[in-house]
């Protein structure tokens, strides 16, 4: 009797499995999506993605199925774009259709479609216009954003000097100075590097970023329904985000007590004034949830990416001391040693500008970008992409496109210099993405990279006790971000 029951159960499971597979296969085949590997019911294409090598796996699939292909994360299809022409065609030529924000379950559980990075439609457009206007005009009648970066650069130089030429890992200093710029803009104040609140803020951000980009975070993005019921480090993301929310909320309440619409001190004041102006509009996107989530988005977008790019830059200069010396020659010729760099200097420093662009291209910090989504059913290259489908534009494919860059896998500032040594741009340079979802902090990030790096090279010569190689500077993928290897260096005053 028991044997018969087991046989019946196994037979039922087999028949059910065949029915599920047959139904899935029919639905899968009927879709006019781009080609791709055949998915397994419920589990999608998990077998085609090597653990900890998401980007490498996606690029390999692109070689097999073409620059536009479909992959299944669990039961949900995502369309991957892995070529400069394809990304340009989608995000620029069909910008409106591809302007949605895709699902990112590791962070969606907290943001829930709020904040400038995760809203869609008209609400997103209003938040984006407002944020761009405030960032553009911020500092009129007060200290400008450039002055705040210059001030922080001087604190950074002083902090480096305090090590008295002893070797150290520059990660903490770079994270602190970049974060402090955002704190100055959002909160209207900077923090001393050893401030306990500041250290807590940074540790929470780093914990979220590290866990979200880990293998656990990747699995959460692929199988959110399953991972929501499995214990692991990914469960701490929500806790950390709620703590960050409380930190920002405290600062918002402090601002509310002394708010003066005619004298706005920071971005929080600007948002609070806008909330007052639209308090009678029930559909206004200017409310407390969007305020908190927008500022969290700004911190995430601005801190880790810029500080990591600077870490890449310092290691690259260690490997290529001739590039460091050429940078210093240009800084000495244009700026000298008696004043701090300013952003107007950049137009007179083509080699420095080219080096910074090449650092961004080569380091490729966020190779997968942040997922987009199509806002309606879209016809693209003869295929039909249903409304709401996630789109992954692999920015790494444009930044290392051999048709756009002569030596795509080698660090080469000449990618951004013409035959006369003048700076030249390249449309395939997309570290900030492109199209409607172009990072709103692009101008701020470019200003920070220029001012922080020129201050360092102006004041110090870089050395390391370890002899690094060209292989060492190749970016190392951890989750969805590229990081340099851990290293130490010492700064010799010039």
Topology:
Blueprint: H1 2-30, H2 54-65, E1 68-73, E2 76-81, H3 84-93, E3 100-101, H4 105-111, H5 121-137, H6 145-161, H7 171-187, H8 196-212, H9 215-222, H10 224-227, H11 236-257, H12 267-277, H13 288-319, H14 321-334, H15 350-363, E4 372-373, E5 378-380, E6 383-385, E7 390-393, H16 395-399, H17 442-459, E8 460-463, H18 470-473, E9 476-478, E10 481-483, E11 490-493
Summarize the structure in words:
- Belongs to the cytochrome P450 family.
- It holds the Pfam family p450.
- InterPro entries: Cyt_P450, Cyt_P450_CS, Cyt_P450_E_grp-I, Cyt_P450_E_grp-I_CYP2A-like, Cyt_P450_sf, Cytochrome_P450_fam2.
- With about 500 residues, this protein is α+β, with helices and mostly antiparallel strands.
- The protein has a single domain (about 30-494), classed as Cytochrome P450 (Cytochrome p450, Orthogonal Bundle).
- It has 18 helices and 11 strands.
- The chain has helices spanning about 1-30, 55-65, 85-95, 105-110, 120-135, 145-160, 170-185, 195-210, 215-220, 225, 235-255, 265-275, 290-320, 320-335, 350-365, 395-400, 440-460, 470-475; strands at about 70-75, 75-80, 100, 370-375, 380, 385, 390-395, 460-465, 475-480, 480-485, 490-494.
- Helix 4 runs parallel beside helix 11 (about 235-255).
- The protein is globular, with a radius of gyration of 24 Å.
- It starts with a helix and ends with a strand.
